[in-house]
Amino acid sequence: METDVASHLYTDAGGALVERKHRLRVTGGPDAGKELALELGTTLVGTHPDNDLVLTDTTVSRHHLEIRVRKDGVAVRDLDTTNGTRHGGTKLGQVVLTGPARLRVGKHTEIDVEPVDAPVPLGEWSHDRFGDVLGAGPAMRKLFSLLARVAPTDATILLNGETGTGKEAFAEAIHKASARAAGPFMVVDCGVIPKELIASELFGHVRGSFTGAAGDKRGLIEAAHGGTLFLDEIGELPIDQQPQLLRVLDKRQLRRVGDTATVDVDIRVIAATNRDLRAMVKQGTFREDLFYRLAVVRAEVPPLRERKDDIPMLAHHFAAEMGRGFDLSPSLVATLARHDWPGNVRELRNVVDRALSLGASTLDELGASSPAPAESSPPTDQAVLDLPFKEAKAALIEGFERDYLKHLLAKHKGNISRAAQEAGIDRNYIHRLVKKYDLDVERG
After folding, report:
1. What is the bridge-based pairing of β-strands 42-46 and 53-54?
2. CB atoms within 10 A of CB 55
3. Looking at per-residue confidence, does 198 or 365 come out higher?
4. Which residue in 38, 119, 256, 321 has a CA-CA distance of 20 to 30 Å to 45?
């Protein structure tokens, strides 16, 4: 399944969407200065008038080159010509170029194959939703515009956002807006699969490959063939499994555990995380090459506290889904809109459900969480056990991070450089944690 093969979309360092295309530029020979943008389909180069790029060099054949832009690069094929085509001094038959290159065509003509990048204007998003995700504020409309533009392509997307912000709902909306909508949408939660089973679950296995492998098993990646693979909590994937995933992204091939043969897979990959993968790369717990293969298009999903104007709409939407659209009082909705929602959209939905079920009218009665101040202790064991698994895990991690950071900074009297050195982590990561937990320290 090929979509948008003539151009590639990605986000640059500033988060702007950029489109990469390619062009041919004649840099040597009698036709120097001629240019041609490479478009979808096959481009022909030669001296015959029916070529797309017509040359006058008599040492160039009538039909000399066939060029096609693919997902993995620019495919160049010499059409069995008399004087041939050279790349880097080597005569070529066929090659896939993955970067800028210079070709010598015939005896005198040189042609550069060049990437050409241009910003993509997204325009205004005129709706208050993208798929099943709701949002009317500027941040959400901008995000909707970005995702709607890249959804029809096969660009790999990395969604970054806090727990409960709806990253899976975004991924499913992207899938439904893509050319793969009729294919499977396969969700893999990398944070809940036991480490010893990850390889088998992701890549599958063959009979006898390990104790208990009574038969062949197709993995979750293979099950996504023809559709979209959503890798949730990708930051939890053990580093020893990351090279195998990188191979899938690079080659669209996998090897089942215990097998020597490879299996081709046709998938679009969307990954999500609530962790800082760049910091993990610096710490050596996440591969840099895998990060860049996943983060072709990066999208930040804002927390609910940064889009409080959306809370009334979301609350009424959740109530309507439960068949109680008119049962939320204006005073309760106003109270909901003032809350910070550390558990984000997921927590809001749960609170609306409890409000409709119990008839409670205050956040204390409904059990809404509050942002933990720096002085507070971690949640009690019982409180954590009452949460869904992923929320409980996030609460424990955040409690540990907050308390560890407080102790570390107090020990070094707020000097972040010395704290980072002792902890063995990047000082920029400590800065981000300080901001995340709103700690009042002298930043060194």
Report:
1. parallel
2. 25
3. 198
4. 119
